[in-house]
């Protein structure tokens, strides 16, 4: 783990006790937008990449049994909050997104919400996701979108003043990264959840 990844771990260790309260509107809005765009498969296994406090997983429990839900994160403190919210059957692991502790072809879907801008090795992350997805499996990424001026300004600010942040992509850049990693049938949906947050949800298949 790089020193800047360790900075992210420390940042979220401090945020974990208050994260859900501080970011409630943003997290709920982006997760609902993600689920609206998700192809729902009650029998499929889903991995929540950088699951944080497990809010997405709580929503997925409405139509996915707990034993089919998996989450990984680099913050043990965030996972501790998730464990308090989720039933025991949900599988949570301390792991990095570029070193997934799963065999090939395990998941029907992998979802990443609000975390892709932290990944310092995005191609390695996407290669790992490609590896653990079953043939024809779906990857869904929801994150900030640099095509919106507010997110361009935020990206500039955070790259100067927050070591944990890496880069906010525009839709074309993320599309190209996915193509290079071998993904197909890539679609991008851009939207705003309020006047500030400009988001994109990208869907693609292995």
From TrEMBL:
Q: Name one GO biological process term.
A: methylation
Give a yes or no for keyword Methyltransferase in this entry. yes
Molecular function GO labels: methyltransferase activity
Tell me the keywords, alphabetical order: Methyltransferase, Transferase
Q: Name one Pfam family in it.
A: Methyltransf_23
Protein name according to UniProt: Methyltransferase domain-containing protein
């Amino acid at each position: 783990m790089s020193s800047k990844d360790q900075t992210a771990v420390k940042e979220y260790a401090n945020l974990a006790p208050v994260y859900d309260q501080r970011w409630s509107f943003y997290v709920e809005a982006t997760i609902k937008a993600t689920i609206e765009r998700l192809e729902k498969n009650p029998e499929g296994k889903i991995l929540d990449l950088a699951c944080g406090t497990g809010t997405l997983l709580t929503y997925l429990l409405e139509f996915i049994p707990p034993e089919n839900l998996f989450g990984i994160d680099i913050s043990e403190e965030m996972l501790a909050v998730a464990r308090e919210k989720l039933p025991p059957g949900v599988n949570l692991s301390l792991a990095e997104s570029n070193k997934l502790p799963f065999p090939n072809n395990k998941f029907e879907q992998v979802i990443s919400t609000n975390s892709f801008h932290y990944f310092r090795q995005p191609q390695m992350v996407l290669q790992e996701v490609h590896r653990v997805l079953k043939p024809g499996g779906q990857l869904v990424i929801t994150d900030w979108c640099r095509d919106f001026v507010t997110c361009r300004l935020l990206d500039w600010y955070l790259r100067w003043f927050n070591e944990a942040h890496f880069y906010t992509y525009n839709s074309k850049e993320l599309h190209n990264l996915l193509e290079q990693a071998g993904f197909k049938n890539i679609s991008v949906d851009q939207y705003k959840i309020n006047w500030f947050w400009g988001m994109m949800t990208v869907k693609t298949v292995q």
